[in-house]
UniProtKB/TrEMBL annotation:
Domain of life: Bacteria
Taxonomic lineage: Bacteria, Pseudomonadati, Bacteroidota, Cytophagia, Cytophagales
InterPro entries: Cell_wall_metabolism_enzyme, Dup_hybrid_motif, M23ase_b-sheet_dom
Protein name, per record: M23 family metallopeptidase
Organism per entry: Xanthocytophaga flava
Residues covered by the M23ase beta-sheet core domain: 207-304
PANTHER family: PEPTIDASE M23 DOMAIN-CONTAINING PROTEIN (PTHR21666:SF268), PEPTIDASE-RELATED (PTHR21666)
Coiled coil location: none
Length: 450
């Protein structure tokens, strides 16, 4: 028996015209920094144009690259933020990965992508808002380290990661959130919020249009951002109030129930400047001292301020699984295992798979591996449930001449044949096919009914 990992390659794809393609692509276009791009052509579009100019979009490899980028816009994994994953991309097949996540209006989202490769390689990072169809928000490439945006609405967002053709390596993707505004009460955090947006007021006659932050009387209420004081006045509900115009976001911040006001209309302020002192004026005279903090936008009126000041969800969990196996074949070692949407057993199960089912490991996240099945289904599986495709799980004698194909499909390309009476050592099983080691081409597939 041979060493079954020795000449192992991905059996799906062939590597053709690499040198010619590479010469064409590296001569097209200039480098675009990793930033938001507001020009007519995004980095992704510039690269796509380079493919068209060199007619590579008409080749099988070019078509596969364009198709991969489009396919993942409608077939992505739903993740939760914060998130981190290191994944592999190979030079032998155009690949693209995508992840969907929910973001709330007022959250600041930071996406970082770092690339490790022996060759210089660009990885395109495109962020979309999901409005029934993907709508491009930011397009960039990985010549710098991060891109940041503030969510404009409560909605789904999608990030697509796609390397240029004919390059291999790995990337680490990190997605984190943070507040877009500073906290409006000095020395306090969102843990001191005692009443939230939408709570009943006046026996249900109205709804709370802000959040109440409790603090000792006289605690400074501070500017959450730079801006201009639009109003310093008194009203029945809010008592002594201050209105701060947030020029950057074209919204007004409302500070109410102040014990005293320490700014004047028209005054310019910067983050952290004291606007007033926490108190109980207005309809708060029978409650503990607190600041009512609200945000108003025209023409929608009051909006929930909580996501604007909510503390970051923290850093993603460290990647604890070994990453020396990316791009390699593994199989299920447990009697049965589940593939999940995200690296969390509380997430929905995508598919249950049987023992010895093979897959390619494409990434690692926390204690999980991101895998792709021969069928194209991809998701997360617990590291404890898998093992290397190394030793055979069965030995079968061929009853008649049998084709070895590059995919588990009767219509796939034939790599070689096995003669009648020859022994076949099966490494894994997918449907009605065995995964075996071929004589010269790495891995291949034969039907189980030999």
């Amino acid at each position: 028996m041979t060493n079954y990992l020795h000449r192992r390659k991905n059996p799906y794809f062939t590597f053709s015209l690499c040198t010619i393609f590479l010469l064409f692509l590296t001569s097209c276009g200039k480098t675009t920094p990793f930033r938001e791009v507001f020009k007519k052509a995004t980095p992704y579009e510039q690269y796509q144009k380079a493919l068209e100019d060199t007619k590579l979009d008409q080749t099988a490899l070019g078509k596969d690259w364009l198709l991969a980028g489009q396919r993942v816009l409608h077939d992505s994994l739903l993740i939760s933020v914060p998130f981190q994953e290191t994944a592999y991309f190979g030079a032998d097949k155009p690949t693209a990965y995508s992840f969907r996540f929910n973001a709330h209006r007022g959250e600041r989202i930071t996406i970082q992508v770092g690339v490790q490769s022996l060759q210089k390689v660009k990885v395109f990072v495109d962020v979309f808002k999901w409005e029934g169809v993907p709508k491009l928000l930011i397009s960039a490439d990985t010549n710098a380290t991060s891109v940041t945006f503030e969510a404009e609405h409560d909605q789904m967002h999608l990030v697509r990661i796609q390397p240029e053709l004919l390059r291999s390596g790995r990337y680490t993707l990190s997605i984190t959130n943070s507040p877009s505004l500073g906290f409006p009460v000095q020395g306090k955090t969102d843990k001191h919020i005692g009443s939230f947006w939408g709570a009943d007021r006046d026996g249900g006659a109205r709804r709370h249009e802000g959040v109440d932050i409790f603090a000792a009387r006289g605690t400074p209420a501070i500017a959450s951002t730079k801006g201009v004081i639009r109003g310093v006045n008194t009203n029945n509900l809010g008592g002594k109030v201050v209105w701060l115009w947030d020029q950057e976001r074209n919204q007004t911040l409302y500070y109410a129930h102040l014990d005293s006001q320490l700014v004047q209309t028209g005054q310019l302020v910067k983050p952290g400047d004291t606007l007033g002192l926490v108190g109980t004026t207005g309809n708060a005279r029978f409650t503990a001292p607190h600041l009512h903090f609200g945000i108003y936008r025209w023409p929608s009126g009051a909006i929930d301020p909580y996501p604007f000041i909510k503390a970051s969800s923290g850093m993603p969990a460290d990647i604890k699984v070994p990453l020396d196996n990316l791009g390699m074949w593994y199989r299920v070692s447990a009697k049965k295992a589940s593939i999940y949407h995200i690296p969390d057993k509380k997430s929905p199960i995508l598919q249950s798979i049987e023992r010895h089912t093979p897959f390619v490991v494409i990434g690692g996240s926390s204690l999980w591996y991101h895998i792709i099945l021969p069928s194209g289904v991809n998701g997360y599986i617990a590291a404890k449930d898998i093992e290397k495709v190394r030793m055979p799980v069965d030995q079968v004698k061929v009853k008649q001449m049998t084709a070895v194909t590059d995919q588990p499909d009767s219509g796939a390309a034939v790599m070689e044949t096995r003669a009648k009476g020859e022994s076949v050592y099966a490494l894994a099983k997918f449907g009605s096919y065995w995964l075996i080691e071929t004589t010269r081409h790495g891995l291949g597939w034969v039907q189980t009914a030999l």
